[in-house]
Task: structure prediction
Amino acid sequence: MCAIVLVCTRAQAEIDHQLAESDHPFLRHALENLYYGDKGVEWISPCGDTALWVGLRFQTRVDTYSGDLSSVEDLVSGGGRTFDLRRGRLKGGGPLFWKWLEVYSEYDWRSDTLLDYRATATYDDWLDVRFGQWKSEFNRERVDSSGKQQLVERSLSNFWFTVDRQRGVSTSARLAKGSPIDTRVWLAFLSGQGRGGHFDDDSGLMLGRWQWNPSGEQLPFSQSDLRRRESPTPSIAVATVFGRTPFTRFSSSGGGSLPGFARGDFDLEQFLVETAWHFRGIAWQQELHWKNIEDRTTGETTRLIGGYAQIGSFLNEWYSWVPPPLELVARMSIVDPDRSFGSNTEREWTIGANWFLNGHRNKFTSDVSWLNFDSPARDASQTRFRLQWELSL
Result:
C-alpha cells in the first residue's frame, strides 16, 4: 500500500515540478491541466471538451491448477502451480474534442495485443452509437472487467457461451429513464470473427439485448455492491446473438473452437436470460444460456445449455464485528456441452473472499473451486486454489 501511495505521489509531484520549471507558455498552459486522478494521469483541455486519461493495470496471480479447464482431459492433465503476471494493461480514453464523443483503447503488453479501440457518440444520455472493437454487450459476466470481478476468474460457463470482443457497430437507447419501466436496448452487428477479425461476406453476427431496470437506476457492469446501496437495485435482461461464423468459441485470443470442433462454417444461435441485484452490500447475478451450433457443411446441430449463479456480501452491513473491507462470495456453475449425450455435465462450485484496499483498483482476492466433470468415457474431479492481487495506477 505504501508503494502505491509513493508512486501516485511521485507522479503528481513530477507534474507539479514540470509546471513550476516551465517557461514555455504553451507547455505551462498544458501542464496546468495535467494531474493524477482517479483513473490515472488525466488531462483536461482549457475549454473542458477534451478530458483524456491514461492508466496502468496489473493482475498478479498464484494458481494451484492453471489453464483452460473445459474437458475431462484438461482436468486430468491440467497445468500445475503457477505464479505470474496474469494481465498487464495500458488503457486510456475520455471525451475527445466534443463532450458527446468518447474514445477508449486498451493494450495488453503481456500478450502484445490491442484489445479494445472504440469511439462512442452519445446524445443526452439516452442514445449512443459505437464502432470499433470491444466486448459486445451480450452477457453481464463477460462485460464486467476482470478487474471488477468478485472471484479470481469468470465462471465455467463463460468459456462456452461468451461472445467476447468483436469488431462491429452498435447502438443503444435508454427509455423511460428513472421510472419503473426504465429499460435499455442494445443492437449490434458484429464481424463474427472474434478479436482482430475483419468483416467479410461469409460471416456476421446480429446481437440484441433488452435490460429492464425496475428501480429506475441502471446497474453498472461491475460486481460487488461497493456503494452499499440503501434501496434494492435489480436488473433483468434477455439477449440473443445469431448469424454465420467460422468459429464456435470466442475469447480475448480471438475466434477459436470448442472441444470437438475445428474451424469451419457454422450458423450460430444463442439466447440468454440474466438477473442481477445490489442492496446493502449484497451483490447477486445469474445467467442461463442456450446455444445451437449448426454445421453448414454436414447439417449437424449441437445444442448446449449452461450458466451460473453467484452471490457476495459485505457482512459488515449485517454484523458490525466483521471488517468493512471484507466481502465473501459463492458461485455455482453448470454446463452441458452437448445435450444429445448423457453423462457429460461439467460443474463448478467456488467460494472466495475479497479484501478491498481501494475499491476494485487495489484489492486481494482468493478463492477455492471444486470442479467435477463427467463424460461418457470417464469422470474427473479437481480442487483449485487461487490468490490474486489486482492493482490499477
